[in-house]
């Protein structure tokens, strides 16, 4: 029977409850998490108050099938003030399920720095004072791993940025995966919650082993023996650098261009040939899309070197590479490593630093504001900037830790502060689909609807604003099913409605195709109502001038067309 654990950090109270009705309506994963947040969170709750709620939810078919290994986290985002949802891979979902839990709901604030320990049926709140303030997330994570020698252990942890309340602080999960976007790290920090350790050694029932084996083999073959996920194993998403640059859709120097003259030096091919040390995977995934580089650096005058493992992907290469004018793969890895150590979302950090560089160059910022000379292409200044953001050192860096839109509201330069709904932009400057998709997505994320892929399919232009709005909505509704399973979005072409239906049947939990489609629409509507309840307002959506000025592969995007898309989306979702 599916179970939810409720943990109150204030009084160390832990309760477990069964909620089968929510699973019937909202499947699991992101749908279940949103439903639990909706019934638990008061709309007047401030994001960094003890009353904010964190919900972690695994998918109902994890770990039954390949690539169903994600965990959803939902909360009120301190960065946007709205609905926040972030996804992470690793071992967490499987560990939760093997511990008999489908969701964990965390409220309150611990009196002292603490972490939550879930060891099968035993849930405890433990002392983390010795971990608080450590310079690296890796060190703190390793200590927690050593404290708990257990099979399938999963460790999620925040860094200095989360402890200090940087509003785009993330959470590192099992060394190479993250709840990156929208500030879960800051919410955990405000709760004195350093991390979460989960281990489960239980077993999950398989009603019909023959049927299960048949559908398992079918899914496995689709994953590893077709082209559906091949690119993710080879070069990973870093393969996108070269083609996007050729198209003119690679954001460069704070979105002032869509093409980077040094793109070859940060291409997926260069990372793969010169720095790739290993490929690893989330639990129960045969793809190995996590590409880990070896960063070998000298730290002393003599032959003194350190070697660190740094995971990379396209979004990090864009945010800390082309968008900062960095054309060296090694320098990108150094910046990724700095963000990783501090516990910062690399996308938001990169966009914030790019804006600050341009604002300083144009005189909107003065040197006495930054106390640091920022220059596109200068990796040393950006490493120092990342450290100052994480430490919230001085007025300017404290404010930049609240997001690029808030910083621009204070200093000016809002026309080139590239954020959508206060969430810093992902790395796709491909046209109206990417812009509208990020603005309108339920969490202002490129993963909500992949508007950039709509651009690539419609390079000649969209038939109408209504057509684009319809496409964004329909794709987002379909994705609610995938992210409630919770399957990896890289596997969305594998997990078609018919495959999902067969998987559920073999696990003894039948879902008709019609019921799945109804659930997707119901989850979408729930999240849309929830974000409006928490402050989302169509009339206040800001379109940065920069994304209208810089040509895309579809030409320049017209504000009038985007406003028409926003209005069409509003009519179809709110009336």
What would your notes on this structure say?
With 575 residues, this protein is α+β, with helices and mostly antiparallel strands. The protein folds into 3 domains: 3-199, Aldehyde Ferredoxin Oxidoreductase,  A, domain 1 (4-Layer Sandwich), CATH 3.60.9; 233-395, Aldehyde Ferredoxin Oxidoreductase Protein, subunit A, domain 2 (Orthogonal Bundle); 424-574, Orthogonal Bundle (Aldehyde Ferredoxin Oxidoreductase Protein, subunit A, domain 3). Helices cover 42% and strands 15% of the residues. The chain contains 24 helices and 17 strands. The strands form 4 sheets. It has a 6-stranded mixed sheet with strand order 2-1-6-3-4-5, sandwiched between helices. A 6-stranded mixed sheet has the order 8-7-12-9-10-11, sandwiched between helices. A hairpin with a 6-residue loop joins strand 14 and strand 15 (305-312). Helix 12 packs parallel to helix 15 (379-391). The protein is globular. The chain starts with a strand and ends with a helix. The mean pLDDT is 95.
């Amino acid at each position: 029977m599916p179970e939810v654990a409720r943990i109150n950090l204030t009084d160390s109270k832990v309760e477990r409850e069964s909620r089968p009705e929510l699973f019937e309506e909202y499947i699991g994963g992101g749908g279940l998490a949103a439903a639990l947040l909706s019934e638990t969170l008061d709309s007047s709750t401030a994001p960094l108050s003890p009353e904010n709620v964190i919900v972690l939810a695994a998918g109902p078919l994890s770990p039954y099938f390949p690539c169903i290994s994600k965990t959803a986290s939902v909360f009120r985002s301190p960065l946007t003030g709205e609905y926040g949802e972030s996804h992470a891979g690793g071992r967490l979902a499987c560990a939760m399920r093997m511990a008999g839990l489908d969701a964990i709901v965390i409220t309150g604030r611990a009196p002292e720095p603490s972490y939550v320990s879930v060891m099968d049926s035993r849930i405890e709140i433990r002392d983390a004072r010795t971990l608080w303030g450590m310079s690296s997330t890796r060190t703190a994570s390793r200590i927690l791993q050593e404290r708990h020698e257990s099979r399938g252990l999963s460790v999620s942890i925040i860094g200095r940025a989360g402890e200090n309340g940087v509003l785009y602080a993330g959470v590192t999960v099992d060394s190479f995966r993250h709840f990156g976007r929208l500030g879960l790290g800051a919410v955990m920090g405000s709760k004195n919650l350093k991390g979460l350790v989960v281990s489960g050694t239980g077993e999950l029932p398989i009603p019909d082993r023959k049927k299960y084996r048949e559908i398992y083999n079918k899914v496995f073959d689709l994953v590893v023996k077709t082209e559906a996920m091949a690119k993710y194993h080879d070069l990973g998403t870093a393969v996108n650098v070269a083609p996007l640059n050729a198209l003119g859709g690679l954001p460069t120097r704070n979105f002032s261009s869509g093409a980077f003259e040094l793109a070859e030096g940060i291409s997926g091919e260069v990372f793969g040939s010169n720095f790739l040390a290993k490929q690893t995977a989330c639990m129960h995934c045969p793809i190995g899309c996590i590409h880990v580089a070896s960063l070998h650096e000298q730290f002393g005058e003599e032959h003194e070197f350190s070697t660190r493992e740094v995971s990379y992907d396209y979004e990090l290469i864009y945010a800390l590479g082309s968008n900062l004018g960095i054309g060296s793969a090694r320098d990108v890895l150094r910046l990724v490593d700095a963000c990783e150590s501090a516990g910062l979302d690399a996308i938001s950090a990169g966009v914030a630093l790019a804006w600050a560089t341009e604002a300083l160059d144009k005189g909107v910022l003065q040197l006495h504001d930054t106390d640091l000379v920022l220059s596109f292409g200068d990796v040393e200044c950006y490493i120092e900037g990342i450290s100052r953001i994480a430490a919230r050192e001085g007025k300017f860096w404290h404010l930049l830790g609240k997001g690029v839109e808030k910083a621009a509201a204070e200093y000016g330069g809002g026309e080139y502060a590239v954020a959508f709904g206060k969430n810093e932009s992902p790395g796709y400057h491909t046209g109206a689909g990417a812009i509208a998709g990020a603005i309108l997505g339920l969490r202002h994320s490129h993963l909500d609807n992949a508007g950039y892929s709509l651009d690539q399919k419609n390079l000649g232009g969209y038939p109408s604003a209504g057509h684009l709005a319809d496409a964004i909505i329909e794709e987002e509704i379909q994705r609610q099913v995938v992210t409630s399973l919770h399957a990896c979005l890289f596997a969305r072409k594998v997990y078609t409605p018919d495959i999902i239906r067969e998987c559920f049947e073999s696990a003894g939990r039948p879902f008709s195709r019609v019921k799945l489609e109804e659930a997707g629409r119901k989850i979408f509507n729930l999240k849309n109502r929830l974000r409006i309840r928490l402050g989302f307002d169509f009339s206040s959506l800001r379109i940065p001038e920069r994304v209208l000025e810089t040509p895309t592969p579809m030409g320049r995007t017209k504000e009038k067309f985007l406003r028409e898309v926003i209005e069409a989306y509003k009519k179809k979702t709110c009336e």
